[in-house]
Automatic annotation (TrEMBL):
The chain crosses the membrane at residues 27-49, 120-141, 153-176, 218-237, 276-302, 322-345. CDD domains: TM_PBP2 (cd06261). PROSITE patterns: ABC_TM1. Residues 114-345 form the ABC transmembrane type-1 domain. Keywords: Cell membrane, Membrane, Transmembrane, Transmembrane helix, Transport. The keyword S-adenosyl-L-methionine does not apply. GO terms for molecular function: dipeptide transmembrane transporter activity. This is Peptide ABC transporter permease. Belongs to the binding-protein-dependent transport system permease family. It is a multi-pass membrane protein. It is found in: Cell membrane. InterPro entries: BPD_transp_1_N, MetI-like, MetI-like_sf.
Length: 356
């Protein structure tokens, strides 16, 4: 009898291990196929856009024999399938080519520019989620009331108003007229050349160096564009929070909790919001990814030296290596955050694990 129980227990453990291995295998296949699709899209975009990368390097007045030689050196005379194979090999090795605009390896330029974008988007999502979630809860609890209407109007404005127009108005009011914040750029020139970059994150570097005056100046430059991105994400997060909370507040467990005499605050914040946070994690993660990839206009308006401005300047100068390299990096981060949110969803919601 004991032997049979041990055999049965071993069989269950083996079954669990097989299910776990199958889940991990499926997850890795999804990552591989998604990333391969991203590489394929960026490769063919680079071939479809009517910009000759050879002319971007040698100029449109170069002799024909020079153009032919450079085209051969760049491998553009080979069949399309072979070009794609070489392209995938180089990307997997971290080789995105050399930027025509800066003459640096594209990956080196991205490493320099991307921390500025991460810093901007991170503060933006902190503001967006930190304010948007409570507003969404408030609107759901006060459904149909004045608070609900105000939150919905605020979200509608955030959806409707062009972010570049909001940026220009913000600079006009808070910088030019009131002088509450600093203007375009990441830090004043007086501090820029006295600070040695370590991490690439201006707030972190100034704090590590103990340069608190420079820290305040960097924060003054950061707060306005980050607030605009935060407002942009707040509009979506508050709307989704309201929707999730309305669904949870109509569930039977909420009625039962109220019948037990639990306080309304505990029912809302400890029970309803806790369950609403399961899908809301995905919303916040994707909003953060959207800020990382969609802050091009904000960075352009505020002359913020991040990846968005780098890609924009590269596109204007027909620097396709830089454009495609930046696109791959942003797309990879979007894929990573999407997969991370899916994993968190499975961890936070036991029902998704029970069905596997």
């Amino acid at each position: 009898m004991a032997h049979a129980e041990r055999v049965q227990g071993g069989g269950r453990r083996n079954a669990r291990l097989l299910r776990a291995a199958d889940s991990v295998g499926r997850f890795l296949v999804v990552i591989l196929l998604t990333y391969l699709g991203l590489l394929a899209v960026t490769f063919f975009i680079g071939r479809v856009i009517p910009i000759d990368p050879v002319l971007a390097v040698v100029g449109d007045r170069a002799p024909e024999h020079v153009i032919a030689r450079v085209r051969e050196e760049m491998g553009l005379n080979k069949p399309l399938w072979e070009q794609f194979f070489i392209y995938v090999q180089k990307v997997l090795q971290g080789d995105f080519g050399r930027s025509v605009l800066t003459s640096n390896p594209v990956l080196q330029d991205i490493r320099r520019a991307f921390p500025a974008t991460i810093e901007l988007a991170t503060l933006g999502i902190i503001l967006g989620a930190g304010i948007g979630v409570p507003l969404g809860v408030w609107a759901a609890v006060r459904r149909g009331g004045l608070a609900d209407q105000l939150v919905r109007v605020m979200g509608l404005i955030g959806y409707s108003a062009p972010i570049f127009w909001l940026g220009l108005m913000g600079l006009l009011v808070f910088y030019a007229r009131l002088g509450w914040v600093s203007g375009p750029g990441r830090i004043d020139v007086a501090y820029e050349y006295t600070l040695t970059p370590v991490t690439g994150f201006m707030l972190v570097d100034t704090a590590m160096a103990g340069e608190w005056e420079a820290f305040g100046n960097a924060f003054s430059h950061l707060i306005l564009p980050a607030s605009l991105l935060g407002y942009f994400s707040l509009a979506y997060i508050s709307r989704m929070t309201r929707s999730f909370m309305l669904n949870e507040l109509n569930q039977e467990y909420v009625t039962a909790a109220r019948a037990k005499g639990l306080s309304e605050a505990r029912v809302i914040w400890r029970h309803a919001l806790r369950n609403a946070m399961v899908p809301l994690v995905t919303v916040i993660a994707l909003s953060y990814a959207g800020l990382l990839e969609g802050s091009v206009l904000t960075e352009t308006v505020f002359a913020w030296p991040g990846l968005g401005l780098y890609i924009t300047n590269s596109l204007q100068n027909a620097d396709m290596n830089a454009v495609l390299g930046g696109t791959i990096v942003v797309g990879s981060i979007f894929i990573g955050l999407n997969l991370l949110s899916d994993l968190l969803y499975r961890v936070l919601d036991p029902r998704t694990r029970a069905t596997r």
